[in-house]
Specification:
Layout lengths: L7 H13 L6 E2 L11 E2 L14 E5 L8 H10 L1 E5 L3 E5 L11 H22 L4 E7 L3 H12 L5 E5 L4 H14 L3 E3 L6 H13 L6 E6 L2 E3 L3 H6 L9 E3 L8 E7 L2 E6 L6 E5 H7 L23 H8 L11 E3 L4 E3 L29 H6 L26 E5 L10 H15 L3 E6 L8 H8 L9 H14 L9 E2 L15 H6 L3 E2 L3 H12 L3 E3 L7 E4 L5 E3 L3 E6 L3 H4 L8 H14 L2 E4 L2 H10 L7 E3 L13 H8 L10 E4 L8 H9 L7 E4 L6 H5 L1 H5 L8 E4 L4 H10 L2 E4 L8 H8 L4 E4 L4 H5 L3 E4 L4 H12 L2 H15 L4 H15 L4
Parallel strand pairs: 1-2, 1-3, 6-7, 6-9, 7-8, 11-15, 17-18, 17-22, 18-20, 21-23, 22-24, 24-25, 25-26, 27-28, 27-30, 28-29, 30-31, 31-32
Antiparallel strand pairs: 3-5, 4-5, 9-14, 10-16, 11-14, 12-13, 13-15, 19-20
Length: about 800
């Protein structure tokens, strides 16, 4: 192909390269560039060369197919786009400084071509194997119509009969036998989730099946279904698709993938769901009462969760929780029973596009260029400024629980509580704390001693039980079960060094001995809420953890940090029944529920019949301030831990199953690096299992080392953050996830999990990995270790992201929640 010297697009691209490329830089480009750039190589060398030896790659949109697919795919992974016009796109290994602006519309046209090429290439390398599941219940006439169409797709099919009547089951037998299709009959109708679990599980047992399509029995199917989906699906980026749109599920964006028009969604109907086997394995089983799931209030009989919502949005491993979109390709599947009269749960289906099965809509380059860029999933909205923030809660009397504040060592909720007290005080509120330490009302001196004594129960189990029963009986005494404001006796008890300044300060607040133990004990026995009376009138009783306590005559706010005991019950020691009931009580008993992320709010709405308008998302602020220290000072400080500046990987958090330290250690062991892995955190439940891998993964000859620092003061932690090469935080689930934000604030790049709230909190400031995939964690670490430019970008983006979580923004969100509870907003 020749380029006229007056071709404006070629001239524009040539001039751009003159400004940014060296005389002998290795450039992959059409031959016409060689006259000006001697280091040019033509596209035909991509048969034998990789992108590793090139500085720039120039794609001509009309010649993309001349570039070998593996070379093009590797370019997208290793290079960054720095220029684009209607004909050319330039990729560079190193981004120039300053980075040029790239015209997104011109870039997207190329990316769409490359996406299609990549999909086709991977399909040719190893064509995926498909399988189909149909669930049916008492409507063999539907199966008669749908089964032949689904079989025509060329994939094996299994039909699950959800305990139809004997007559209908025999007819289903006849239909499936006629087509040579296996029929699974469930002995009892336990709901559609149970039937889907059985059908998908049937194909998951076959390791050769890659993609599984689920269909209701009332569908018409376009014969090109799998051909179209093959051009769009991707096990990592696009693992969940559907061939049917529905107006009751919102479309967030319209985009083009593989040349087809698609709708990006966060939830989809269960008429047709098509997913990679790894995705099905991650989201199944759908919770039902038969699998131990709590039964949602007011839901259909026998169901633990709506199957389509669970698969697409509610499961902790769902596509929405990963911060991605489900892909809808309209026109491939339709239902022929919009009434739902014969369906398992009488589901009514919106008939928005079911009149014509037109097939997927193709898009040309001009139409693609008109599409807006897809936006990421929700990020924290910036609150409305309030000039009177310092007096926003002036005169409001707040009582806060001391359940976590009085603990001798820090926890995430203790940090939250301390920050909350300070924020409320800065807004003009009068804040007191209800503590539960030992006391003596009769003798002030003895009271001081008991209050600051170790709160250890020294009796046997019988004595302890008797004490709790006595306390519970006292709690039945109505107004006589009353907290009292204590006064500290100065320095009669030496407190410095043993107790934090916060507890010493809170010692002037209210106390009621063992009130939290007694309330939890009483609730566990009888679901009883304990009433506590106060000697002073309070406006708000704010519990920073769901507690079964009411303060008489006071409005209640409850903070719910996460639902990990319900989402990942095997990762915590909580009494799950008590936890579930406490959350439900908090929803019923509180004027406002505060959550620390939108993800936790969604979890609450998934499990409980809650009013979304009474759930306020405040997030948490970052309270750490950057060190005023240069590299030399940080390096000298790190020597006390035997560490070198920017030469170690860092993890911060408790060592327990949900933090995923075990998989992090496995990923680290497979790296080719001599950087140590530094784990900062206390040993919590099941720490032996998490750290036990060190013994067999590292022998005496290994160049790698795992350093464990159990207790690190906050000031030292700041040095560790700022001196690390990066923070790796592959947590399985978080309510907020403070360590990544702390790291960003201190200029430490972050690799974190792509699940739960972490994409919501970390935004564009982190590199994401699947926490269940050791190889993915390792690959992301390797990527960052080998790319200093990427590291610098993450430092900048991380600092920018952390600014969204300033103390001022936090206070504005708090103000809104408190005014709502006080009925002023």
């Amino acid at each position: 192909m020749s380029f006229p010297i007056d071709d404006e697009f070629w001239i524009e691209t040539r001039d751009f390269l003159k400004d940014h490329a060296g005389a002998t830089d290795a450039i992959l480009a059409p031959n016409e560039f060689m006259e000006f750039f001697p280091g040019t190589y033509h596209y035909n060398v991509t048969y034998t060369l990789s992108p590793d030896g090139f500085d720039f790659v120039v794609f001509h949109k009309g010649m993309v197919h001349e570039v070998e697919p593996p070379f093009a795919i590797a370019t997208l992974q290793q290079f960054q786009p720095i220029f684009a016009n209607s004909v050319f796109v330039v990729y560079a290994r190193q981004i120039p400084d300053p980075a040029p602006a790239v015209e997104t519309a011109h870039l997207r046209a190329l990316l769409d071509q490359l996406s299609s090429i990549e999909t086709l290439y991977r399909a040719q390398q190893q064509a995926p194997r498909y399988a189909c599941v149909i669930t049916t219940y008492n409507r063999p006439q539907g199966l008669v119509r749908s089964l032949p169409q689904i079989l025509s797709l060329g994939a094996p099919v299994v039909v699950v009969d959800d305990a139809s009547s004997e007559e209908n089951y025999r007819e289903n037998q006849r239909v499936t036998a006629e087509h040579g299709v296996p029929l699974l009959r469930l002995p009892e109708n336990r709901g559609l989730p149970n039937a889907i679990n059985a059908g998908i599980g049937y194909w998951l047992a076959d390791p050769d099946i890659d993609w599984i399509s689920y269909f209701q029995d009332d569908v018409d199917v376009h014969p090109d279904l799998f051909n179209v989906l093959a051009a769009i699906q991707d096990p990592q980026d696009r693992p969940l698709l559907t061939g049917r749109d529905a107006v009751e599920h919102r479309t967030y964006e319209v985009a083009s993938i593989g040349g087809y028009k698609v709708h990006l969604k966060r939830s989809m109907p269960g008429v047709h769901l098509h997913a990679h086997r790894d995705y099905w394995r991650a989201v199944l089983p759908i919770p039902t009462p038969y699998l131990g799931a709590p039964k949602p209030i007011g839901r259909k009989h026998g169901q633990g969760a709506d199957e389509d919502w669970w698969i697409t949005a509610w499961s902790p491993q769902s596509i929405t929780k990963q911060g991605k979109y489900a892909i809808c390709v309209p026109g491939l599947v339709r239902t022929f029973d919009q009434t739902g009269t014969a369906s398992t749960w009488r589901n009514v289906v919106e008939a928005d596009n079911d009149q014509v099965l037109a097939g997927a809509e193709r898009m040309d380059e001009a139409a693609i260029a008109q599409l807006p860029s897809p936006t990421p999933l929700s990020s924290p909205p910036m609150p409305t400024p309030d000039a009177n923030l310092a007096s926003a809660l002036s005169g409001v009397k707040i009582l806060m629980d001391g359940y976590n504040l009085e603990l001798p060592r820090g926890t995430g909720i203790k940090t939250y509580s301390t920050t909350l007290v300070k924020a409320l005080q800065d807004m003009g509120a009068q804040v007191d704390v209800l503590l539960s330490r030992d006391s003596s009302k009769q003798d002030k001196l003895l009271d001081e001693v008991l209050f600051f004594d170790q709160q250890i129960r020294r009796g046997n189990i019988i004595t302890e039980l008797v004490g709790l029963l006595k306390g519970m009986l006292k709690s039945y005494s109505g107004p006589f079960y009353r907290a009292w404001r204590r006064t500290s006796l100065g320095d009669l008890v030496f407190k410095e060094g043993e107790f934090g300044a916060d507890l010493i300060r809170y010692a002037q607040s209210f106390n009621l001995s063992r009130c939290y133990e007694i309330a939890n004990f009483s609730f566990s026995l009888s679901n009883r809420i304990t009433d506590i009376y106060m000697p002073e009138k309070m406006d708000i009783w704010h519990v920073t953890y769901p507690l079964p306590i009411r303060i008489k005559g006071t409005k209640k706010i409850t903070t719910v940090h996460d639902l990990i005991p319900l989402r990942l019950p095997y990762t915590t020691l909580d009494n799950k029944k008590d936890f579930y009931n406490k959350i439900r009580n908090a929803i019923e008993d509180s004027e406002v529920i505060i959550t620390v992320s939108e993800n936790t709010k969604k979890d609450l709405l998934t499990y409980f019949d809650a009013d979304p308008d009474r759930i306020a998302v405040t997030y948490q602020p970052v309270t750490l301030r950057p060190l005023q220290a240069d590299e030399g000072e940080i390096a000298r400080y790190l020597r006390r831990y035997g560490l070198d500046y920017q030469n170690y990987l860092l993890f911060v958090g408790a060592i327990e199953p949900k933090k995923n330290v075990g998989r992090l250690i496995e990923a680290y062991a497979s790296l080719d690096t001599d950087m140590p892995l530094v784990i900062v955190g206390k040993k919590a439940w099941s720490w032996e299992r998490e750290l036990g891998r060190i013994d067999y993964l590292f022998d005496g000859t290994s160049k790698q080392e795992v350093k464990l620092l159990e207790y690190v003061p906050m000031e030292s932690l700041k040095y560790l953050y700022q001196g690390a090469y990066c923070l790796v935080f592959p947590s399985l689930y978080e309510g907020f996830g403070l360590p990544p934000l702390e790291a960003m604030t201190l200029g430490c790049p972050v690799i974190t999990s792509n699940l739960s709230c972490l994409p919501e909190i970390c935004g564009a400031g982190a590199l994401y990995a699947s926490p269940y995939d050791v190889n993915d964690i390792r690959n992301k670490i390797e990527k960052l270790l080998s790319d200093r430019t990427l590291r610098a970008q993450l430092v900048d983006k991380g600092r920018e992201n952390a600014q969204r979580f300033s103390r001022e923004n936090y206070q504005r969100r708090l103000q809104s929640a408190y005014l709502k509870a006080l009925n002023r907003g």
